[in-house]
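Materials and Methods. Structural model of CapA family protein. The 381-residue sequence of CapA family protein from Nocardioides ganghwensis was retrieved and submitted for structure prediction as follows.
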Amino acid sequence: MPVRRSAAGAVGGRRTTVAAGLVATLLLVGCSSPADPPVVPTPSAPPPVEPSAPQAPAARRAPPVTIALAGDIHFEGPLTARLRDPATALAPASRALAAADVAIANLETSVGTGGRPEPGKRYTFSAGPAALTALAAAGIDVAGMANNHALDFGRARLASTLRAAESAADGDPPLIVVGVGADVEQAFAPALSDVDGAVVATVAASVADADPTADPTGQWAAAPGRPGTADAMDPRRLLEAVRRAGAVADVVVAYLHWGVQGETCPSTAQRRLAARLVRAGADVVAGSHAHELQGDGRLGAGYVAYGLGNFAWYSPGPTGVLTLTVRPPTTPAGRARVTATRWWPATIGADGLPRAATGSAATASAERRTALRSCTGLRAP
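The predicted structure was written out as tokens:
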């Protein structure tokens, strides 16, 4: 499996670096093919008891990590002109993103040059490599591109997309793109961010319904030897990617493109997959695609934010940034745990940009967030 390009350096004064050595360590473990049958454990006799009791694992004292989660971003309509100055393109939201140790969002557009709009698609989004520069300048560390717009201009553009992602990873500040790659292994490869010794792994995948005329993610899926997006309609590879990420990371985030557009409640499929991901070792499960905010809360040992809605988008409406404080595990067998949450309430204006909500608008945003949890089956933070 090829190593995803990565870079190290301070971002917005934070403690975040992306560790190339850790990426290589993870990738050396390897990946299974989605065509492989599920692994069924073979019953065996218990191992013999050693004469001396094993020593308890040494305690770790890695500091808490803050992870900011935002929703869908594109540069269409009134946002197109913002890329003339990438350094300030998302300026109103930069402080909320850059304040976290690791900030993650979904880039819902084709990036690069060349290609043609996909025939039959109602909406095709396009942006030049400056889009990645804009995300990095705004304080975003990891951008997911496993979505139904990543290849809006066809596979002919994909080579330039991957080149732009490589350049962004080497940038200052760096941005790591996940969920798209030169083959299926690279598409599912995680971004690994080191925060004062605590490693955060971010895996991205698309599990939205495949519709050849509107959402052709299944056609765009990366495969062995074929570039594309991380497609998880069959979730086995995604679950395995989460397990492998957990072998080298302290905190595992699964960022998904999922759900039903226009719905404020998660679908049954979302709820089932979220539970499977948490059991597989995901400490945080988040996503977008519905273009509506959906509820967040605790699910077993994990934390789930079903829908982060739009963030920088040509349709005005409510939005925000969800920042989680996560305590890394204290033993090798332990789990990370979200210990606090913070919501930055915002509204997308006519210019497509999110700006902080204040006063009664901020109160309404907090109340809406609480109300959205009622149909999720999640527990309050």
